[in-house]
Specification:
The chain is mainly alpha-helical. 84% of the residues lie in helices and 0% in strands.
Length: 145
């Protein structure tokens, strides 16, 4: 009985680790395929630091997974939470815009909506709506509980 429980737990552990490796590999493949790191390095004129950026993404993902899986509390306070949320929002925005450019949704949207000018304002409003919606969600979650 005890040996079968250990074997079952070991099997679950192996399946969980294998699934995590597959999902993480797929996510990093998506990031690489979209060229997010290359685009940011090109736009900021820091192409010489691409390897550093890739290492930061790799280590950030690995450390974040470890903190999440083992439920490790990081006592940095509300200031670090705000900074992390801001930086994470920038990254999520870059990922969304890169994905939208890859699948060519922006040109199709412009043609169908007949926008002739001010498209920058449309993007700004979309970003503000996403940001305000995220703030409402997180503040209602943290203040409501």
């Amino acid at each position: 009985m005890f040996l079968s429980t250990i074997a079952f737990d070991a099997l679950l552990w192996v399946i969980g680790i294998a699934g995590g490796v597959l999902v993480a590999g797929g996510m990093y493949a998506l990031i690489t395929t979209l060229g997010i790191i290359n685009r940011i390095a090109q736009d900021t004129h820091t192409a010489g630091n691409i390897l550093l950026y890739e290492e930061c993404v790799l280590w950030g993902g690995a450390i974040g997974n470890i903190l999440f899986v083992f439920d490790i509390k990081v006592p940095f306070g509300i200031t670090a939470l705000i900074i992390f949320g801001f930086v994470g929002g920038i990254y999520a925005g870059c990922l969304a815009i890169a994905l939208a450019e890859i699948i060519k949704t922006i040109p199709v949207f412009i043609m169908r909506s007949k926008i002739t000018g001010g498209f920058g304002y449309v993007i700004l409003m979309m970003a503000l709506g996403k940001g305000i919606g995220g703030l409402i969600y997180f503040f209602s979650f943290y203040l409501g509980s």
